[in-house]
# Entry
Amino acid sequence: VERAADNDGVAVFDEQLARQLRARAALTCDLLHAVERDEIEVRYQQVVVPRTRTRVSAEALARWRHRDTVMPPSLWIPIAERSGIIHDVGRHVLGVALRDQPRLQVPVAVNVSPLELTDPRFVPDVLAALGDLPPRRLTLEITESAVMADLDRCVAVLEELRARGIRIALDDFGSSYSSLGVLVDLPVDVLKLDRSFVSRIDQARGAAVVEATVALGRALGKPIVAEGVETEAQLARLVALGVDRVQGFLVGRPTTADRFNGERACPRPRAADTG
Ligand code: C2E
Ligand code: MG
Ligand code: MG
Ligand code: MG
# Structure
């Protein structure tokens, strides 16, 4: 590891880059075993009706308990996608979410990677995971950019899922500059207004963009969930614009299934099931 230049004298070895690559390789190795070691946990964040704060659904959010830290998905979902582990992770999160759904007492939404959605086994896997649970209790969230990247294929899969009674949410709505002409025909049930819009609502120029995006969503005739609502001021503005549902730290942080209903943690019935 002393090589500093190739035969042409061009530097090909960079210590810092090498360190980063080693760190990523180590992380990838650990991630390969994360599911089997039961390190992937699921938190639930509620979505509420703004005026009444009635809970309408729960979004499942994956966490990786890795060497005494809890890693947010932004740090490892991309690695899971590159290495193909995302299929195992996705199946695991879906299974946990569907198992937890009855005690959450509201429908559960699960995020789906574009790689999973376009996998031929995805639909049968989801149906198998549902088992006897009514399909209406499940929403699958797929990002707007993913749908636009492979429109025809995604539309076909989304239509199949909807025909089975599973709801579809368009995540990060507004972040992809998709045209109204394309959006209007998308087989989705709910639009999730991206957090970046909500955070801009406090500024005059930002507010106009949020207004236009919410108006676009309303023109499509779909319920809109605003993500990442952190302040009462943001909530009030969103309600005034006609947003139907809100999600964010103001109304509830991601939490464990046990805490979701305000229960005290207690021995889980599933401990006996799984042996
Ligand atoms: P997302 O689906 O848009 O999920 C919402 C994210 O916003 C979550 O981040 C949530 O914790 C965060 N959030 C909610 N309310 C607030 C708020 O008021 N303020 C701020 N600053 N943040 C808020 P999280 O859990 O870190 O997840 C990030 C992204 O990772 C998700 O974005 C989703 O795209 C992806 N993700 C999470 N779990 C999974 C999974 O099981 N599978 C896949 N494929 N992706 C996942
Ligand atoms: Mg989501
Ligand atoms: Mg989202
Ligand atoms: Mg988002």
